Every structure is written in C-alpha cells, then in structure tokens.
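Minimal example, chain plus adenosine-5'-triphosphate.
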Amino acid sequence: MAKKIQAVRGMHDILPDETPLWQFLEDTVRRVFQSYAYRELRTPILEMTELFKRSIGEVTDIVEKEMYTFEDRNGDYLTLRPEGTAGCVRACMESGLLHNQIQRLWYQGPMFRHERPQKGRYRQFQQIGLEAYGMSEPDIDLEVILITARLWRELGIPGLELQINTLGTPDERKTYRARLVGYFQEHREQLDEDSRRRMNSNPLRILDSKNPDMAELIAAAPSLMDDLGEESRAHFSAITEGLDAAGIKYVLNPCLVRGLDYYSRTVFEWVTDLLGAQGTVCAGGRYDGLVEQLGGRATPAVGFAMGVERLVAVLEALDQVHPAAVPHAYLVVAGGNAAQAGLMLAESLRTALPGLRLQLNCGGGSFKSQFKRADRSGAKVALILGDDELKNQCVGVKWLRQNREQISVNHDELAGFLKEISGE
Ligand code: ATP
Ligand code: MG
C-alpha cells in the first residue's frame, strides 16, 4: 500500500462535526460588524515579502523567524500572509480607498506563521479582523472596543477580561524608551537572553516577556504614563470614560505593548483564563503611522484581530453546542424507473422549498440498506419512491424518529407536507 500523506504540522482540518460552531461564530461576527456598518474586504493570501518587512518590521518575531517565504518562478519573493492588516492597508492604498475618506472595513481568512505548534498556537490559523481608517478622535477607538464587547455578548462568551494601555505618540515613546533602557541597563544581570537582545532592537517588547523570573523586574519598570503629553492623556481618558459609561470593565495593563513604531496611543487585548498560556483571543489598537510607513499619506487607523481557533476553543470550553444541520428528509428510490424519477422529484422539491434539506439515495441498494442509510442521515422522514408509488404519483412517508404509522402523500401535496415537517 502506498504511504499515506498527512497534513502539514501545525495545520488542521476542521471536520464537519466542528464546522457548525465555526459557522455560528462567523455568522454572528458578520451580523455584528454589519450592525456597525463595516464592510468586508478580501485580499490575496500571498503578498510581496517586502510588504511585511516594511509594515510589521524586521526586528519582530514574525519577520525574523515566523514567515513562510519563498521565491516564485519569476524570482519574486512572496510570503504567505502572517496577519491581515498589512494587506488591508496595501489594498486600500492601491485602490484609492484612503484618499480623504473614512473607511470601516473587516476581513477574515487564514494566516500563516512558522511557530512551535501547541494548544491555541498553529502554523495555519484563522483570523477575523476589523480596521477603521481616517478617524483620529478617541470615539472610534471606543467604537472598535464596543464592537468586540458586543460580539462576546452575542456569542454567549462571558468572563473575558479587557486589558488596555496607551503607547503615546512616537515622540513620547522615544523619551520613555530612553528611560526604560536606562532602567534595564541598571538591572542587566536580571535580564534573560531574549531581553538582552531586545535592549537595542526593541526594548518595549521586554515588558511583554512571559518569563516568570523577570516578572518582578518588569513590574517595577518605569511607566510610559509619566511621559505622556496632554493630548495623549486626554485621548486615553476619553476611552476609559467611555468604557465606564458603557459599563464595560477593563484592567489597565502598563505591560501591554506592541513593539512596533507605527502603533500609537490605544492598545487593548481580550484575555481568557480558559485556555492556559494562549489566553489572548483578540488584540488591537491604534496604528496611525502605518499608512505613511507604507508610502501613503498619513492616515489615522485603528483595528483589531481575533484568533478564531482560540474563540472556538472558548465556545467549546463553555459547552456551547451547535448541532450539524441534518437533512429533513431522505429519499429512498427502488425499482426500475424510480432512480431517474427520484432525481427529478428531488430537484423539483428543492426548487419549490428553498429551505428544504433533502438527501437523495445514490448508488442503489435494497430497501433495507437504503433505510439504514436514511436512519444514519439523521433525517426526520424517509420518502419512499418505488414502482407502485411512481404509478400512483405518490410517495410513501416513513417516520424515522417517531412511532407513527407510514402514510402516503400525493406528489402535488408533497411540497406542502415537507414545508410543514421542516418548519420552513
Ligand atoms: P501571541 O502573543 O499569542 O503570539 P501575537 O501578538 O503574535 O499573539 P497578533 O499578531 O496580535 O498575535 O494576532 C492576533 C490574534 O491572533 C492573537 O491574539 C491570537 O488570538 C491569534 N493568533 C496569533 N498567532 C496565532 C497562532 N499561531 N495560532 C492561533 N492563533 C493565533
Ligand atoms: Mg505571536
């Protein structure tokens, strides 16, 4: 026997038993985003490698070691997108969507990062993200956070914790960065190897370290709040006051950082304690510098991305069940001419009743084996079409889940009957 080929490590199939939960989540997201008038944008999965180097930055985990990059037949360097924001900005710039315009957009799709696979961390994973362009006031930051809060309510996910912080402006961060480097230099012997490397490249990222040995050092580090100017302070207060007014609880987390220069002011994450180490289900913030960094005109921007696998895992941990849609009816066809006639009958019933889920027996088989398949399909009823029924222009109806006597329904009454039992 030939050797079986397996899926790529860290990349998973989502099997038919699991898709109902995914579809529930995707349907809910679409409905909630639409209720705030956000529009969907779809971009390619492959982008020029340069796009991610310039947007995410060379000294980040993603660009340094996580990207799937290859040279194509023309010698172009292409990368499987590790996140959605860069492509979104690229697409908007290319199509002139950012020119003196306000845009409210969202996207969804697979992302690729060569990380060490573990629970909640995969090499292909699904993100749903949302971006708002052209608005610099805190009201839009607040709207974006309120969208996420509504989403958890609609999904039936309680208990997520909202953590927020502000990173100020690039100038304010520069002042802070110098203070922070000074502080860490004083305690150099307590830094781990990763952090020492980051001292020069990306010192703010040290605050984000998950190393428990450094927790104390990080907790005592200077705070960026002290370097904020009047405007940044006001921007942040407007958001916290808005959250208070909306009754949304939050935790100020001064260690919540994004090491990238294009971030500004607001950053937030939603965190769960149901999933162990991979607890962040949604991360976002303001990134006013990115469009300009990619060669466009300075454009304020704010957005977030959610990890769908992690959200699905939360729904599972909460025992949310979304049963697969089983067929309403299974059409059993037996006899010389019944198979062909059955196909036509099934087609006409689907035309008459668009919501009907009807499974047709294909591949023949005895009555007995067809009834077995009908039962396994989960359908409420088996419709029986044999030579006799064909002659009499009717079908037999056998109840598969109820103890009821078999009946016969004429073809012209069949659509009405199925409408009733399917509730469509
Ligand atoms: P982490 O600190 O967990 O590596 P990140 O900062 O790299 O997260 P973002 O780039 O902000 O993550 O992506 C937004 C969200 O996408 C994360 O909060 C998480 O829910 C999800 N996510 C990121 N990487 C993965 C992955 N490898 N597998 C599954 N989900 C992921
Ligand atoms: Mg990561």
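Residues 329-422 form a domain with the Rossmann fold fold (CATH 3.40.50.800). The chain is about 40% helix and 20% strand.
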